[in-house]
Design goal:
It is a single chain. The protein is an alpha/beta fold and 396 residues long. The protein has three domains: 3-190, P-loop containing nucleotide triphosphate hydrolases (Rossmann fold, 3-Layer(aba) Sandwich), CATH 3.40.50; 195-302, Helicase, Ruva Protein, domain 3 (Orthogonal Bundle), CATH 1.10.8.60; 321-377, no CATH class. It is built from 17 helices and eleven strands. A five-stranded parallel β-sheet has the order 4-5-8-3-9. The longest helix is centred in the middle third of the chain and has 16 residues, at 199-214.
Length: 396
């Protein structure tokens, strides 16, 4: 059954880039919902990973609601404060702790005591504060700035990020111990293009919402508009969809939204991973026409697009040593396709013969002695075809 989550109404909501509604209709969304409700039953720290505008705060709010914790839900954006203030904001301060601290003040951790603290954009937290946050999570107590007295806490932490924290750890921009502490329960929120079954229900939700505000009957979507919405890539995710519907209702001439009413960029078509599979089930029968089928086939037939989609899926999975695995798969496939011919392998890849031999040796396809012998006798190996250029001698 379809589920809808919405943010509480706030005067600042129209200025926010947050997703203000989340629909669980697509199979990927329903799987996520089941996972969220299982995780909610524990007190484990949760990490929500997803692009901006996908509804990470809505997921965090639902997790808190299902947890049964009696305390409040407190949401804090770690990127909204300067580095000099975020310490006092999170952990509180005593009077005189710093210039301008005229009185004692509880931090966000104390404000969320008994409930859930949601830290959005956790990747923006400075390294020095990451140490303090780790200590708070381990000891379940907080010490205000300018004080030595620990204050016991009963707070469940839910963090969110739109960056790859594993890569941030490798780049030494994020502490590994904090990353492992935060990711006890990891929830990956797919982008809107990866759950196309949610697009039309979300569009209908926003149509109903804005039509109510305008005191008018709900508008409809023409079949051509339905196709346009389903084939668009939605780089801004749910927030962008809301803006598109809002604008369309303002400029639409009648009670039906047409494609010319939709402010969509022609440069962001739906990716192959989204149009493939179950998305067509969301189309009304009147909208599933021949040109829709041709558009679907064209998007899914581009090998580079499929490759990019596969890379995106692997990155979401956090596959270890991904670069090495991709390099190995490419060189092995090219060598087999060239029937173990080094010259042809180099030509197919558009690299120099030395680069090809280095890669073949690195992945165990030829021995070092054979590579050296080929170098002695292979001075006449052909260079890459014109226009392809020569790759560097190593891919690292």
């Amino acid at each position: 059954m379809e589920r809808v989550l919405t943010l509480p109404q706030s005067p600042s909501a129209p200025l926010s880039i947050r997703a203000k509604a989340l629909v669980f209709h697509d199979p990927a969304s329903l799987r996520l919902l089941a996972q969220v409700e299982r995780v909610a039953c524990s007190d484990a720290t949760a990490l929500i990973i997803g692009e901006t505008g996908t509804g990470k705060e809505l997921v965090a709010r639902h997790l808190h609601h299902c947890s049964g914790r009696p305390g409040p839900f407190v949401a804090v954006n770690c990127g909204a404060f300067s580095e000099s203030l975020i310490d006092a904001e999170l952990f509180g301060h005593e009077s005189g702790a710093y210039t301008g601290a005229s009185g004692a003040r509880a931090g966000w951790f104390e404000a969320a005591n008994g409930g859930t603290l949601f830290l959005d954009e956790i990747g923006d937290l400075p390294l020095g504060l990451q140490v303090k946050l780790l200590r708070v999570l381990q000891e379940r107590q907080v010490v205000r700035l300018g004080s030595r007295r620990p204050i016991p806490l009963d707070v469940r932490l839910v963090a969110a990020t739109n960056i790859d924290l594993a890569r941030a750890v490798e780049a030494q921009h994020f502490r590994a111990d904090l990353y492992y502490r935060l990711s006890v329960a990891t929830l990956v929120l797919p982008a809107l293009r990866q759950r196309p079954g949610d697009i039309l229900p979300l569009a209908q939700h926003f149509i109903h919402q804005y039509c109510q505000r305008q005191g008018r009957p709900d508008a409809g979507l023409s079949p051509a508009s339905v196709k346009a919405l389903l084939h668009y890539g939605w780089p801004g995710n749910i927030r962008e969809l809301e803006n598109v519907i809002h604008y369309a209702l303002i400029v639409a001439r009648g009670d039906q939204i047409e494609p010319e009413d939709l402010r969509l960029s022609p440069l962001t078509p739906m990716s192959a991973e989204a149009v493939a599979g179950e998305w067509s089930a969301a189309l009304p029968a009147s909208a599933l026409t021949a040109d829709a089928a041709l558009a679907q086939a064209g998007a899914a037939s581009d090998p580079l697009q499929r490759l990019a989609d596969a890379f995106r899926e692997l990155l979401h999975e956090g596959r270890p040593a991904l670069y090495e695995a991709v390099e190995a798969a490419l060189i092995r496939t090219a060598y087999a396709h060239a029937q173990s011919n080094q010259v042809q392998t180099a030509r197919q890849l558009g690299v120099t013969r030395n680069t090809a031999r280095t890669l073949l040796k690195r992945h165990g396809l030829i021995r070092a002695e054979a590579a050296a012998e080929a170098g002695d006798t292979g001075a006449g190996l052909a260079a890459p075809p014109a226009g392809q250029g020569a790759a560097p001698s190593a891919w690292r």
